[in-house]
Amino acid sequence: MSQSRFNDVFQAQRDVLLRTLQRMVGSHSTAEDLLQETWLRVTRALTERPIDHLEPFVYQTARNLALDHLRAQRLRERMLVEDVPTQELESIAAQFGSPEDSAHARHLLDSLGASLGRLSPRQQRIFVLSRLHGCSYQEIADTLDVSPSTVQKELKLIMAICIGVIARLDHA
Q1: pLDDT confidence of residue 107
Q2: Are residues 1 and 51 in contact, defined by beta-carbon separation less than 8 angstroms?
């Protein structure tokens, strides 16, 4: 499938794709961004391999991007606001926490922080992109110019380290 054929298909389906994306994400500007990303991803895919069924591939790519966007948005909504100073966050009292629970939680966070601090810079970046920003393996792979398999293996190692820290603290 040639790039010019894809451009023809994309232009013919652009309005329908845009409306579909807009319904999914609830924002015209975000839908426009996702549509542009769809074009880029499909263009890249065409340089890597032939695509027999182009229209379904375009729609599936757009849908996947919208779902990834919605997952990342839900994750951001659950996260704390990054602009809040640490002192202000630490001054918020827990509703039901005992001093022992608080000390255990602080020790757990310190231990996890120390373990994550010993990761390589690439591993730290993978962890942040995956767990804090909600990026998919493919998005992380594209960002770091590695394979999705590498991202998956690194995350498996990182999560094993985290589980090991928690297990050691629970047994102590």
Answers
A1: 81
A2: yes
Cβ contacts of residue 154 below 8 Å, gap of 6+?
A: 122, 123, 126
d(CA 124, CA 98): 32
Spacing of C-alpha 102 from chain mean position: 30
pTM > 0.85: yes or no: no
pLDDT of 80 higher than 60? no
Longest dimension (CA), the chain: 66
Cα distance between residue 162 and residue 52, in whole Å: 43
**pLDDT at 146 > cutoff 90:** yes
Domain residue ranges in the chain: 3-78, 98-171
The pLDDT, as a whole number, for residue 116 is: 84
Residue count of the chain, please give it.
172
Categorize the per-residue pLDDT at 134 as very low, low, confident or very high, splitting at 50, 70 and 90: confident
User: Domain 3-78 falls in which CATH fold?
Assistant: Rna Polymerase Sigma Factor; Chain: A (1.10.1740)
H/E stretch holding 99 reads helix 99-117
Looking at domain 98-171, which CATH architecture does it have? Orthogonal Bundle (1.10)
Nearest to 127 by CA among 119, 138, 165: 119
What's the one-letter identity of residue 79? M
